[in-house]
Design brief:
The protein is mainly alpha-helical and about 80 residues long. About 75% of the residues lie in helices and about 10% in strands. It has one domain. The protein contains 2 helices and 2 strands; from the N terminus they run H-E-E-H.
């Protein structure tokens, strides 16, 4: 009877180690995905900022800057360029 008790405890220990290993691996994967998402979001934010900077730099030269979104096009120009003295 002692032999089966030892085997049972051994099986429980193996199951516990596997469960803990799975949980640790799952949490590690979750952290990795969050880091990758954060890096992606930072890159997207930087891209948006650079696009806006380029639009403004072009608009202040008093030239129209065409912006197209889907089927609509809008021409941007700095307000200061429209004011006449």
């Amino acid at each position: 009877m002692k032999q089966s008790g030892v085997v049972f405890v051994g099986i429980l220990i193996v199951c516990l180690v596997l469960a803990v290993g799975y949980i640790v691996f799952d949490k590690y994967q979750e952290v990795q995905q969050e880091e990758q998402l954060s890096i992606f979001q930072q890159g997207a934010q930087y891209g948006y900022e650079q696009a806006i900077v380029q639009l403004v730099q072009q608009a202040v030269t008093c030239q129209q800057v065409p912006i197209s979104i889907k089927n609509q096009t809008v021409n941007l120009i700095a307000v200061e360029c429209l004011q006449t003295e």
